[in-house]
Amino acid sequence: MVMLHDSDVLTKEVLDWRGLHLFHFQGSSCSQKVRIFLRLKGIDWTSHHISLAKGEHVTPWYMGINPRGLVPALVHDGKVIVESNDILEYLEEAFPEPVLIPADRKEEMHRLLREEDNLHLDIRALTMRFVVPSFLAKKPESEIRKYEGLGSGSVQGAVDPDKAREAEFWREMIRNNGVSDERARLAFDRFRCVLEQFDGRLEGQYFLLGNQLTLLDIAWYIYVRRLCEASYPLHHLHPRMGEWFDALDARKDLSGEVRWPRGVGLITKLLHAVQRLRGTDLVQVVGLDRASDYRSRMGNLPGATQ
Ligand SMILES: N[C@@H](CCC(=O)N[C@@H](CS)C(=O)NCC(=O)O)C(=O)O
Q1: Using CA atoms, how far apart are residues 254 and 244, in angstroms rounded to an integer?
Q2: Ligand 1 pocket, residue 117 CB under 6 Å
Q3: For 232-252, how does the pLDDT look when each residue is reduced to its tens digit (9 = 90+)?
Q4: What domains sit in the chain, N to C, each tagged with a CATH number?
């Protein structure tokens, strides 16, 4: 659990805050996951919107709260917790009803959430390549240096290695002039492998851990939604996951938290149209348009257009 030490936190005022405060951004996948969880639990919370688009996360004030400069971050009665999955496991303990982590599945959930978090840079790579136009996706070296200089750089009293990993992600984007085909393929393969396993799980149950909605469904709903926004052919590759997703997406208490700011959807649609014309959309970059299994599945589906 990444609960910060007081010495990690430079913005000392938050140590005196009472109640539940969430720092989040509307379009951030990890923030969406936490907001859905809070909504399903019926928990009251104070919102602190941190616009990633305006760079509000790379300021002395915010990096004084989360030294990683990422959203979400939670302040609960003066305790600062970062990392979305840690926030959720903490909240489940503090607000047990309704149950979203069944008591007998805690360890399994912890392991599966860790696997989900390990894919975070992959979902970011696919987002930056296939959802966000490239001019919005890159950070200049000056911004990376500013990021490196802010905050305590310390998490739980020790130098935080994640900060260097974050900086490296953005430097790689500069070196490759965006997300390279190779990086996109790697991310795609990782997701395809996990989603194939989940598709198998859904053979005899409604949700990923059984017949009850759990945090695992919420976490993967968010990733899968983002993958669909990146044109990942979910329903063709993993039909049961497609049905699972449609059922969750029809629920307002989930889909109500994942809307992009107005206009972004339109920009992504334009981006996809341009990428399709240039042969640089996800399906073509990962080589699915040439894969025989994909072609035959597409051919068998009503309304198949590719
Ligand atoms: N492992 C972290 C990842 C947090 C993360 O990467 N947040 C993204 C938004 S989803 C962010 O703040 N990005 C800002 C940036 O990279 O500049 C978590 O689960 O909380």
Answers
A1: 13
A2: yes
A3: 999 999 999 999 999 999 999
A4: 6-96 (3.40.30.10), 112-138+178-300 (1.20.1050.10)
